[in-house]
Write a structure and sequence with these properties.
The protein contains 15 helices and seven strands. With 384 residues, the chain is α/β, with parallel strands linked by helices. The N terminus is likely disordered.
């Protein structure tokens, strides 16, 4: 098993991040759906990891729980149409295609109503940042009381605790909001428990589900939510986010390219000094077997312990996987191409499991370096 790591204090998370860049359209859809009385009770925010989906979810939760969104007549039951201004029932409604289309139309008319902004000094915002807001429940991986370590997945007990929250009367008759971050990490039993609440939601209840990989969500959960796809950020928006969230980190073009439009990933790359790690991996792969093995051992020791080790470990896995992906693209022989593609998937899984299950990180790095080096020096490999 891996030795405990000494980690630096993390940067602010989405619960206390107040700036949202690059997702005005998505926020306008939510605001228009709320103000139009057509808010679906379940929303699935999809898109790459680290692009701002959780930040958007917390911003929307803050707006509702603080009252800043200023809805004149929120629906009594989520997803049902509120009375129209003319006195009759609003057309369409619900959380399905009709409600989504209405939300998009509302956002298209000059951006819809002004989107609410709730600052850090707001009382609800302070409670949310402290994890003490009675109207909000966040479902994420929890610590296993038997081992004292973080679980590798969201388990059914985590969801059942949230369901107890939903069965209580909201303070002041207000809204209850559940954020699942991310829904990808729920095991089958947890997903089925969540599905039951999505099928029979209590009144004035809202589910905001964060989803990094679309195939990781049960089709039955997806079908009961309004899907809101968030795009990766463009280069200028990415620079703006980094300037605000990590002003102490200088981003070069190589890191921005590796980040793929994800500020979260860019910050992780910068904190881990991805440029230096990439150079070391290149030296390992270019060196003879014995020298490369010694360099790989030194790299493995670096990312197995000490301050910033987890971020460096993740980046090493991403960089090694990227090397195999490039080899798969450029390989001169089909057999080498297939082997590189298989190794790309295997390395990604190894690093993910090592972190989630607290496996030996040194062994993970050494094996990945050895396997990648062997493939790069095999007949038919090109571009390595």
């Amino acid at each position: 098993m891996a030795e405990p790591n000494v980690e630096e204090a993390p940067r602010p998370g989405p619960e206390n991040t107040y700036l949202l860049i690059g997702h005005d359209a998505a926020e306008a859809v939510l605001s228009a759906a709320w103000r139009g009385g057509r808010l679906a009770h379940g929303w699935l925010f999809t898109g790459g990891e680290g692009i701002g989906k959780a930040t958007l979810a917390y911003r929307f939760a803050r707006a509702i729980l603080s009252g800043a969104i200023d809805a004149p007549a929120p629906p009594e039951l989520p997803g049902l149409a509120a009375p129209a201004a003319g006195g009759g029932p609003a057309a369409g409604g619900g959380g399905g295609a009709g409600g989504a289309a209405a939300a998009r139309r509302g956002g298209a008319r000059g951006g819809g109503a002004p989107r609410p902004k709730v600052g850090a000094d707001d009382a609800a915002a302070r409670r949310i940042a402290a994890g003490a807001q009675p109207g909000l429940k966040v479902i994420r991986r929890s610590v296993n009381p038997d081992t004292g370590k973080m679980r590798g997945e969201i388990v059914v007990g985590d969801v059942r605790d949230a369901m107890k929250f939903l069965n209580r009367t909201a303070t002041g008759g207000g809204w209850r909001i559940v954020i699942v971050d991310p829904v990808d990490e729920m095991n089958r039993n947890a997903a089925n428990a969540l599905l039951k609440s999505l099928e029979e939601p209590p009144g004035k209840c809202l589910f905001l589900l964060i989803n990094h990989v679309s195939g990781a969500v049960l089709p039955t959960i997806r079908s009961r939510c309004q899907v809101l796809a968030l795009p990766a950020l463009g280069p200028e928006d990415l620079r703006r986010v980094l300037s605000a969230a990590a002003p102490d980190l200088a981003a070069d073009e190589a890191v921005l390219e590796l980040a793929g439009g994800s500020p979260g990933r860019a910050i992780r790359l910068l904190e881990a000094d991805a440029g230096a790690l990439e150079s070391r991996i290149g030296a390992i792969l270019a060196a003879p077997e014995e020298a490369g093995g010694l360099q790989a051992l030194d790299l493995a020791e670096q990312v197995a312990r000490g301050a910033g080790a987890t971020a460096a470990f993740r980046v090493v896995g991403e960089l090694l996987a990227r090397r195999t992906a490039i080899l798969a693209r450029d390989a001169g022989q089909p057999a080498t191409r297939d082997a590189a593609a298989a190794l790309w998937f295997e390395i990604a899984e190894r690093f993910r499991e090592a972190e989630l299950l607290n496996l030996d990180r040194r062994h993970t790095v050494l094996k990945a370096c050895r396997d990648t080096s062997s493939l790069f020096h095999s007949p038919g490999a090109q571009g390595g």
